[in-house]
Amino acid sequence: MNNGPRQRGMGTIGILSGPFSRYAAFTIALLNTLKPPDTRLEYTQNTDIVGNMNLICRNMRGDWLWILGDDHVWEPDLLARLMAHDVDVVVPLCLTRTAPFSPVVYSGEVEEGVYASAHDLPAGELVQVHAAGSAGMLVKRRVLDAIGDPWFSTDGTGMNEDLTFCRKVRDAGFDIYCDTSALLGHIGTMTVWPTYQDDKWKVDLDVGNGNSLTLDYLPKPELAVVA
Hints:
CATH class: Alpha Beta
CATH topology: Spore Coat Polysaccharide Biosynthesis Protein SpsA, Chain A
CATH architecture: Alpha-Beta Complex
Number of strands: 15
Largest sheet: 11 strands, mixed
Distance between the termini: 46 Å
Radius of gyration: 17 Å
Shape: globular
Order of helices and strands: EHEHEEHEEEEEEHHEEEEE
């Protein structure tokens, strides 16, 4: 019996790596991932992050692209859960790997290049968001076809490549969603996970060897220049 995600045509998992990044936890998460049997893996390694992301898009095959960095970890069913929504662009919930551990999901653009982190997301729901980081982002081919090469770029305002991509997605008429029940860990000095306990979001810091530290609250909503 195939317990993986229901096959929806061939797709691509694009793996982005820095020049010195090596994480065993990432490798284990990738090997354990439930995925359609004809899924293709693509790999890039360069200091040019924007170039890496565009190369992944050019090399993709199939109907969808799942964008991963090698500084993340996830549960085996994450891809299957994202695919089940059958929307054009969807991300799991991920936090920054350094304090203040803000969600890499944004509720709106206050002014040019200044985004508000979405701190009040409902738990366990699929919600439409203004923008998000590309970590764990599942994108349908038709979105990439509509945007065209280059998909990722910077625009001179300090906005990073993820936010300029999200702007292109919106301008092309597509919506962006976040599944707040689908969680992505962010590897730094500790692995940072979002967690929902006692009716509120908290931060779970995995310090290794089965030990963790939970922060009772997320920082208050703030405006941050995302660069």
